[in-house]
Fold:
Amino acid sequence: MTHTPRRLRPILLAICLLHAACATTTGARALPENPLGWPARALLQVGEAGESSGLPLVRDGGRLVRAVGDLLEAPALMVEGLVVQPGGRFLEGLDRALVGVGSTVTAAVNLPLFFVSPRAVDIGRDSEAMNEALAFIESSAPETWRCGPEDDREMVLPEGTRTEARGKTLVWTFPGGQRRVQAAQESPLMRWMLPANFIAWERSWGFVVPDEAKFLAQDAKSRVTLILHEFIHQEIQMRRWMRGWTLVYWPAYQITFLGTGWRGHWAETHGPHAANCAGNALKGWRSGE
Ligand SMILES: [Zn+2]
Structure:
């Protein structure tokens, strides 16, 4: 049992307000016939190809290009909201602008550090096992994976979300057609700082591990559980909830950690965003391997 110290409450309240002000609407893409959306479409494709590259500078550059693509899709969605499909699309465009700016700032800050974690770790090879796991979760009752009494989620990820391998990366496709690249990289810095305890650190583009060999030596179920856990940090928390602002994510994470530690932490173990739902959901899953 844990409780939140008084001084943390205003910060958590601010995060909740940010969440409430921005409904989770990151599903739409600009219509193919809308020429305003064409530059964004091109940049998203170029960015995804770059993000999946094994060359560190190309990879980190691809992340920036993709973020700019997100940003450029915002005006296309807003115009569609005014002209073609009144209503939801306009808000979707505003939301995309917020996410696009957050992601672009993050990618621009990260780009000069491309050499820090140069080595890509192959998670693409787990795409089939991941799809089996996602189908298993969709057939499970939410009560089996929710994180505590305040977790009211009906699903871990939108139903029908699936993955495919692209190089060593995993490309996630959501039912609305949006795609997200998840990469894993070996971090010498993480190995040096935290040699024993940590198995992975989430990033806005995926995650880092201290040791590739140790990561790959796990069985498929452990790897898939870890990859899904880290993707919940990346997609559900950093992108959808924090609107791509990892500069908000990390302070919020650390400040809560001072108050609660791991047990009771919103990012890990407790409440409607907690990433531990991945481990809960896959406890009873047996991979085909
Ligand atoms: Zn975690």
Remarks:
- The mean pLDDT is 89.
- The pocket of zinc ion is lined by residues 229, 233, 268, 275 (CB under 6 Å).
- The first strand starts at residue 119 and ends at 121.
- The chain has two domains: 1-22+116-289, 31-115.
